[in-house]
């Protein structure tokens, strides 16, 4: 696995054995997986189901040195209620989590095309209680894990399977459906055992992502109670997007005649070439070798590009991680970072096609933060669907913004900036939810197993 050459045990300070693997472990390449959503129809059955699943839930221990398949589990607020957790515990969760993502539509700018009333039926109600995610490097390993989970599920009439969403690497080499290299630029977590890959950025305090540790302000974020439930847990963002790849291809062709010009516009919109090479390290031509080099393709800042003429302020990459950009609306970038573990679903569209084939394809956006609800609502409202923080008024993110055929993208250049208008929405939201992902000991507490009990060695499948 490529990470073995990049990460080594250093000043490990967080309890990796008690943290679920998906939070820190990188996806294997290629990857295959499934997201399963379950409804708890009987509380006691839910606890027994969880107890039987416990030995198969993978921890983050030695996360940089393993590409074995992993299984993780998380819960909606309604799911925690169904598990009959104490009233005081349920009350201690943040209001946004208790309300759920659909109820927060206005705060998330999930309106019009993205409004909850237009979501897929399976995401419109509160029947999704448990989320089980399995990721593996081969279909054989995935199938083995799935069979274990399904066998346990079949023993419990009080647990109902609602959604089974399979996914895998959309395009060979870890490229998303738009043809751009995926999975670059996750924050490094202090105390996780990671070496620094970007010499221009320092690791971020663990408490920004995992409950129970100091955050960037030196404090700890409020946690649900009791401590055994919160420690080493986190909150999860899950959003399903449908990617309009043909619309993206057509928009590029409508803006420029030559393939090279189209590729330049696409790179400016994202902030990277399709290979993953960042524009500010190769501004005029793609460099596939750099794009594929995980030790170098994120080792940069924007110090020498404060005018945005190389990487536009409004590009997706710069919006989501402004780094050292001098912003009109000041904000501590490190307070708004999230760990992204999104995965693609659906077969790829024929390369360069401008005709929609009617096939469903897109992204399951999965992200983690100790204050995920607050962070997502900030990002969606301020950085994705507004441009004030970089003096671009109402200009929205070109890739994930709600542009609805009237979006504008500004590309600073001499003598005048270039503006591309009439931009459609390239990713439409089809559903989403907020979840809580407990630590391993918390899962034991939830189903009545002593937190001090020794976790069995992961069985062979």
Q: Can you describe what's shown?
A:
- Its cofactor is heme b.
- It comes from Dyadobacter endophyticus.
- Residues 36-154 form the DyP dimeric alpha+beta barrel domain.
- Residues 229-385 form the Dyp-type peroxidase C-terminal domain.
- InterPro entries: Dimeric_a/b-barrel, DyP_N, Dyp_perox_C, Dyp_peroxidase.
- With 461 residues, the protein is of the alpha+beta class.
- It has a domain at 2-240 and 433-446.
- It is 23% helix and 17% strand.
- The protein contains 13 helices and 11 strands.
- It has helices at residues 43-53, 77-82, 87-91, 95-99, 105-108, 139-154, 227-230, 245-255, 259-270, 288-292, 316-320, 372-384, 440-446, and strands spanning 32-40, 70-75, 130-136, 159-168, 234-243, 339-340, 343-345, 362-369, 407-411, 418-423, 427-437.
- Strands 5, 6, 7, 8 and 11 form a 5-stranded antiparallel beta sheet that branches.
- Strand 9 and strand 10 form a beta hairpin.
- Mean pLDDT is 91; it is low at 1-5 and 453-461.
What are the salient characteristics of this protein?
13 helices; alpha+beta; globular; 461 residues; single chain; disordered C terminus; 5-stranded antiparallel sheet; disordered N terminus; 4-stranded antiparallel sheet; 11 strands
List the helices and strands and how they pair.
Layout: E1 32-40, H1 43-53, E2 70-75, H2 77-82, H3 87-91, H4 95-99, H5 105-108, E3 130-136, H6 139-154, E4 159-168, H7 227-230, E5 234-243, H8 245-255, H9 259-270, H10 288-292, H11 316-320, E6 339-340, E7 343-345, E8 362-369, H12 372-384, E9 407-411, E10 418-423, E11 427-437, H13 440-446
Antiparallel strand pairs: 1-3, 1-4, 2-3, 5-8, 5-11, 6-8, 7-8, 9-10
GO molecular function: peroxidase activity
Cofactor: heme b
InterPro entries: Dimeric_a/b-barrel (IPR011008), DyP_N (IPR049509), Dyp_perox_C (IPR048328), Dyp_peroxidase (IPR006314)
